[in-house]
Fold this sequence. Notes:
The complex is a heterodimer of chains A (253) and B (300). Chain A is 36% helix and 26% strand.
Amino acid sequence: MSGETVFKIQNLNTFYGAKQILKKVNLDIPPKAVTALMGPSGCGKSTLIRCLNRMNDLVLNFRYEGDIIYKGTDLYASSVDVTELRREIGMVFQKPNPFPKSIFENIAYGLRIQGVKDRDYLSGVVEESLKRGALWEEVKERLNDSALALSGGQQQRLCIARALAVKPEVILFDEPCSALDPMATAKIEELILELKKNYTIAIVTHNTAQAARVSDFTAFLYMGDLIEFEPTGKMFTAPKDSRTEAYLTGKFG
Amino acid sequence: MTRNQWSKFSDRVFQAVGLFTTFFGLAVLAVLLYDVFTDGFSRLNWQFIMSYPSRKPEQAGILAAWGGTIWIMVTTALFAIPIGIGSGIYLEEYARKNRLTNFIEINIANLAGVPSVIYGLLGLAIFARAMKLDRGVITGGMTLGLLVLPVIILSTREALRAVPSSIREASLALGATKWQTVRYQVLPAALANIMTGIILAMSRAIGETAPLIAIGALTYIPFLPTSPVSVSKSAPFVNFTLQGFLDPFTVLPIQIFNWVSRPQKGFLVNAAAGIIVLLLITLFMNAIAIYLRHKNQKRW
C-alpha cells in the first residue's frame, strides 16, 4: 500500500438496537485505490461503508464501538462537522436518486447549499463534473431537462457527477450497479477505474466478478466478521480462508 | 345449484347491491341539488350578491356574508397554515420518536375528530373572553384555525412521508444540513400534496357554522369589516389598518342558517341562492385541490 492510510478502522462493533451487525472489524483503506467490500447479503458491508460518511447517524438505535480514524482524526469526534465531512467523503447509492429537478440543478445543488451563486462558476463546475462523470456528451444539449427523464445508467452517472461537484477526496459506492443492466454497469465500472487516479474509492458489492474487475483490494465480510483483506489479485488466486474460497467459487452468496 | 353457479350468482348479487349503494348517495345528492337550484337559481343576480341583509327578502343580499367568509378564511389561513406546516415538519423530520411525541401524535389525531362546536366554546373562552379579542374576525378566524390545524398537520406529515428517503440521503450525503435538505428538497417535493390538504381543510372550514355561532358571531351585519387599505385625498393618501380583524362579522353559512329559520317564503329562496354560492365556492376550492394532486403525480 502506498501513501498514508485514509481510513483506519479499529475494532469496530456496530449495533442496530440489540442486534450486532459488525464484529471487531479492523481494516485500513488506502488512498487513490479501489477497495471492494464484498460479501453475501446481510454480511454488514453496507453498514460498514455507511459508517465512513456517518450516514448511519440517521438510523434510529444505531450504536458503535471502536474507532474509525480518517486522515489522522477520529471520524466520530464531537469536534467533527458532519456536513463538512460529507463534502469530503461523497457517496453514491444503490438506487440512482437524482433530485426531481433539472440536470443542471442536480449538479449545482452541492455548491448552492454552500452559498455559491456565481452562475458562470456554477456552469463551469457543472460541465467539469459531468465530463468527469462521463455524461457530458449525452446531456450537454439538455442541461435544463428533468434529471428524471434520464435512463437508469445515466441517472447513476449523474449521481456520481453530483458527488464530484463538491470536490470530495473519497467516494463511497454502495452497490452502485445493482439496479442497472450490464451495459450501464460496464460504463460505471469503467468510470470507477478512471476516478481512482484522483480519488480514494470504496465500493460495496456482492458480485465477485465486479470486485475482480474494479478493485485493487478486497475485503471479504461474512456474518459481520471481516474474514480476509488482501490485494484483489492475491485473494482471487489464493484465498486463505475456506469461506472466502467457497464464496469466490460460487458455493454460496 | 352447483357450487360454480352459486358463486356466479352471488357475484352478480353483490354487483347489484354495490351499484345500488353507490347510486343511493348520488341520487340523494342530485335531489338535493335539484331542489336547491330550482328554489334559488332565479334569485341569483348582481343585486343579491352586492346587497347587505334586509328585512325585505327581495332587497336582502349576501355581501356581508361572503365578505365575512373571505375575511375569516384569510385569517384562518394566516393562523393555521404556518403553525400547521411548522408542526408537521417538526414532527415528521425532526422529532425523536419517544413517548412524548407518541402522545402528541395520538392527541393530534384525536383533535381532528373533535366536534366543531367544542372548538367554538374553546374560542369563546380563550380568544373572546380570556384574550379579550371579543367577537371579531380574528376570534372567528383563529377558532376555525384551531379546527383545521390538526388536519393540516396530518396532511403535511403525510405529504412529507411520501417523499422517498433516498432524496434526503442524497442531499445529506452532499453535505447539506438537515434544514437545507428539508427546505430545498423535501418541502418542494411535498408542496403540492401539502397544498391539497390545506385546501381541503379550508373548504371544510368554510362551511362551518356551529363554532362561529358558539363564539357569538352576529347574524345581522349591514357592513363589511374595515378594509385594511384605504385611499384618502390628503396625505398620506394610502392608509393601512388592522381594525378589520376586530370588527364583527357574519359568514355565508350563518346567513343561510338565519334565512332558513325565517317564516317568509322569500327568505327560503334567498337561503337556497346562498347555498348555491357556498357550493360553488367549495366546488372551486376542491377543483384546485384535485388539479394540484393530479399535476403532482410524478413518481420517483
